[in-house]
């Protein structure tokens, strides 16, 4: 999202003129996301002038909507007590996101200015691995004991006034903070005020463990259409919740990362236009170099190939590309199905059976035009048969390699998307050339 | 998600034995998504036996969690009044989804058994284009007039008992149903009971129009972290809402479709394991055939190439693949950035500038190993220069073609993901061979 070109000069002149009243109106009356969007084009110092016009609570609402590099720049620029105050007021999940991007020394310098309870909370969240449920969760949630009535529960919620992210599901805890059930705010409103929370609550709570993999958590939340899902420790004690908006962001990030990995790009970790050219060169270059290395094998193989059948050489890119295209299709289908939960590792026999059948059908589909085209260039129709036979072989090999590699990667605990496309391309190219040479030698003897 | 292999035989034997009590327990006590998941492996007739054990309202909760082909099969099997009753009880967005998949005749046969108000609602939703806001929305929402107090508002909500999807944001309408504001249930709970809704409501409501493109709507909802976003007609009258869970499903679907299109697969419209082999063959085969057609151009070009420099032929796949890989990286980056809203068409000068710089850097990166490898096979070091020079040219061309084609497609109103990869591969291959031949002829004169 780019900065709004119309409001920017206006904001800038308000900042230069010290029009605090005008700035406060902008920062208070628009949606926090809109405030961030409109002021993205300002320098960090100017953004602070804008933010300083409102309360720290409002600052904490606007701040997470800036792009991550901007958030880092803002915290680096602020003096420590100010940064500490802002972090203290932020929702714990947003705070955790930006702290993970800061230099460790800066974090240590700011932390003394954060209240002790929040400080411990920060250290707990920062210690969760990046791809675990813990890294997505917020520690702000509404909870109730079992023994009270719906009316009392609503009175308590009114007094606590939890924010809108966390008020709609209320978790019911026993004296040791074990999760025993949940009620929705809807159920509390609709119930008789004298009804007991114990009788209203749902006890079959779908929950996730703190160390559960992030993509599993997101799949669960998506499948059950929850607003939030509770996170518990090994003893079933509630430690936080993951809310729908964070799950949605995680899904978008994961899907984009998958698409990038499938195209042989290391995940950017930031948006396309924000990524520095140097980091982009590295993230693309590393895979291009690996692919170049495997491509070099094709050059070395071809340098040894007998050259007496020149027309066969002309068909080489076409034949090998057919296998590569099919292989990439199969790999992409399996990777996306694994990552959306449409299939799991246990489905491998079914997946491979399907891909064998598809390999045969697609091979036949391409073999026909392959034969017709070859008939023009080959010395005889018998010679031309090399092309359709090779296409059949290469396409079937492509679907097999493409569909099984993501499964192999998943089974050894690697991300299926991580290396599949480069691997598929590399293996299909090299094996494809070998198949081509073998069939050529066999049929043209 | 595959059927649970443990519960399935148990369910089946309950069905055979006519154990209605046992079936009712399963269908009533688990989460609706879990009921659907556990019974997915049953025949449609058996699923109906399970569903018949509970009320039609509960049926309507479970039904949308079955995969789409199963939902269609269940409605085809049911007699018309039963199907009508089920549809009447379903949330309008889920109902709309399955009705769009049914044969039109079947829809017309069922509709007379749906109450008149719902029937009009169905016709209105079905008339919205598939990729518009209207196709995602539900017409169940909570609304209030401006003149009442928070306490009265809660009393009304208690009486109406809207379902949990739609109770958390309440839309404030004037006498002509124009959208004038909204309050969250949280704000009503936290407010003094005597406060007026008029004073509590947020009047700066972010809304979408009925005909707004689906991906724009989803981006808005994701950006602002809303639980729901209101949908209005051309006169700003509220017609429905789009809830977070439907937006999340839409994001997953769109991301998967994008990944598939990038890999030259027509969107499946169903999950990988559920898609019929025939439809899969078509959805992959159509693009493979197009790619084969463009690949044929490379074969025809090569058949005319002078053969006196045999070592150049050996490097052909390597050199052309370098351009293709870079092109696919650029295309994927631009497609995903466009579809997540990270960049827009207006950013094109910035995108192209970046890709020119990246093309130069990545070209240099690959030119070095290219030169080293060529030095082994070329008759002289001067001859070997053909390879790095060609790689520079092909890689720069690849980034240009890869990044600009999705932009061109978007600008003429086509889905950037739809044709970019096949087009990128085709153009880069053909132009790459031409560049290679030209540079070869120039330098080896």
Can you offer a commentary on this structure?
The structure is a homodimer of 445-residue chains. With 445 residues, chain A is mostly helical. Chain A folds into three domains: 7-127, MgtE N-terminal fold (Alpha Horseshoe); 142-252, CBS-domain (Roll), CATH 3.10.580; 277-443, Tetracycline Repressor, domain 2, CATH 1.10.357.20. Chain A contains 22 helices and six strands. Chain A has helices at residues 7-16, 20-29, 32-39, 44-51, 56-62, 68-77, 80-89, 92-99, 104-110, 116-126, 133-136, 150-160, 185-190, 197-200, 214-224, 244-262, 277-303, 310-340, 348-377, 381-384, 386-411, 416-443; strands spanning 142-144, 169-173, 179-184, 208-209, 228-232, 238-243. In chain A, strands 1-2-3 form a three-stranded mixed beta sheet. A three-stranded mixed beta sheet of chain A has the order 4-5-6. The mean pLDDT of chain A is 87. Chains A and B meet through helix 12, helix 13, helix 15, helix 16 and helix 17 of A and helix 12, helix 13, helix 15, helix 16 and helix 17 of B.
């Amino acid at each position: 999202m780019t900065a709004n070109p119309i409001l920017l000069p206006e904001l800038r002149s308000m900042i230069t003129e010290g029009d605090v009243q005008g700035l406060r109106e902008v920062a208070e009356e628009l949606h926090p996301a809109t405030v961030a969007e409109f002021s993205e084009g300002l320098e960090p110092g100017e953004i602070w002038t804008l933010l300083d016009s409102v309360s720290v609570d409002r600052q904490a609402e606007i701040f997470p909507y800036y792009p991550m590099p901007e958030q880092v720049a803002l915290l680096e620029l602020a003096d420590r007590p100010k940064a500490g105050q802002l972090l203290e007021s932020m929702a714990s999940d947003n705070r955790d996101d930006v702290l993970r991007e800061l230099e460790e020394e800066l974090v240590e310098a700011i932390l003394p200015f954060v209240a002790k309870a929040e400080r411990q909370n920060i250290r707990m969240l920062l210690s969760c691995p990046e791809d675990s449920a813990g890294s997505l969760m917020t520690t702000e949630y509404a909870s109730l004991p079992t023994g009270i009535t719906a009316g009392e529960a609503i009175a308590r919620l009114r007094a606590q006034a939890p924010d809108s992210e966390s008020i709609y599901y209320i978790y019911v805890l026993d004296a040791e903070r074990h999760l025993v059930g949940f009620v929705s705010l809807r159920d509390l409103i609709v119930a008789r005020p004298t009804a007991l929370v114990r009788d209203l609550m749902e006890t079959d709570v779908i929950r996730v463990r703190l160390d559960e993999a992030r993509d599993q958590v997101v799949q669960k939340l998506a499948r059950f259409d929850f607003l939030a899902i509770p996170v518990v420790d090994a003893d079933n004690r509630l430690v936080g919740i993951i809310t729908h908006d964070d799950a949605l962001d995680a899904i978008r990030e994961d899907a984009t990362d998958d698409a990038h990995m499938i195209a042989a790009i290391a995940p950017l970790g930031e948006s396309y236009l924000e990524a520095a050219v140097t980091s982009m060169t590295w993230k693309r270059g590393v895979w291009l170099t690996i692919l170049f290395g495997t491509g070099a094998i094709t050059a070395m193989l071809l340098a040894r190939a007998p050259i007496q059948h020149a027309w066969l050489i002309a068909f080489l890119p076409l034949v090998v590309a057919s296998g590569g295209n099919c292989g990439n299709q199969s790999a992409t289908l399996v990777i996306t199905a694994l990552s959306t939960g449409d299939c799991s590792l246990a489905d491998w026999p079914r997946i491979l059976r399907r891909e064998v059948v598809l390999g045969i059908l697609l091979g036949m589909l391409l073999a026909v035009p392959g034969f017709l085209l070859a008939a023009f260039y080959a010395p005889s129709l018998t010679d031309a048969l090399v092309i359709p036979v090779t296409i059949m072989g290469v396409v079937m090999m492509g679907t097999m390699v493409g569909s099984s590699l993501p499964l192999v990667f998943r089974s050894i605990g690697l991300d299926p998307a991580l290396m599949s496309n480069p691997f598929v391309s590399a293996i299909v190219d090299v094996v494809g050339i070998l198949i081509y040479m073998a069939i050529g030698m066999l049929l043209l003897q």
